[in-house]
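Give me the fold.
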Amino acid sequence: MKNLCDFIARWMGAIVLLTALLSLAFPGVLGGVDMWVVSPLLGLIMFGMGLTLKPSDFRVLLSHPKHVFIGTLLQFIVMPLLAWLLTKVFALPEDLALGVILVGCCPGGTASNVITYLAKGDLALSVGITATSTLLAPLVTPALVWLMAGTFVNVDTMGMLLSIVYVVILPILAGFLVQHFFPQFTKEAATYLPAFSSLVIAGVVALIVSHTADKLLTCGVLVVTCVMLHNVMGFVVGYGAGLLLHLESKQRVAVSIEVGMQNSGLASTLAVTHFAAYPMAAIPGAVFSVWHNIGGAIAARVFASRLSDKEQPEA
């Protein structure tokens, strides 16, 4: 079982991509499943994230508050602005523009911590930025979406705030408490968490693709292009900002990956829950879920090859 879980976690990107392609080819398989299940599925992923958090993970907030602040600030400035810029450059229709903006305004995703480790970056800083941006998301994400997309869609900021609390903050808190009071259970479950999260993410992507397959076939190239540019530009701008701010190499890598990788599952959940009148708004989040694992793996290989052996973090 452990070998199977390791295989699933290692090939997560390929599994999600294959699932998306199968759902695109056979949309009827999951077409009858209601989209409301996306929210509890994301909650399960966030619960798993909470199980992995320990009080020691937050020490970086005290030891390097400046670096966490920089990474979080860049997260919520660079990606929303890049998203807005891409919607203008490609003249995206309202549905897709909203979806791209939702991705840009979400906090960092948990996959960024894995990619940072593989890239030999500052893992503690990565975890600190992910945790901080996630805790700020209930307030910041709705405000940014309203600012970026409020001119062409009705944005229910209070509803979005409550959704993020219900499907992100509360499950993470529950997982954190379970980890604290039942450490033995958490230790045993940790072996299966990466594979479990990978399969749940694949399920979310499959569900969204199944429900939007006909629309995705008509705009697929445009969406994939925007998503890839959004992700890659996030990596580049994040790393460049680290250079300008004179961060150390490992810290630049962590900031770059944190800026470039988003909680795209949350973007899709918000699209499904609050923007049902714009069915294609969930597509960019689903595509990002597929691509950022591929783009992140490539970035990790590039960054790791540039860092010297003495800069490698301890396992």
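The chain is about 80% helix and 0% strand.
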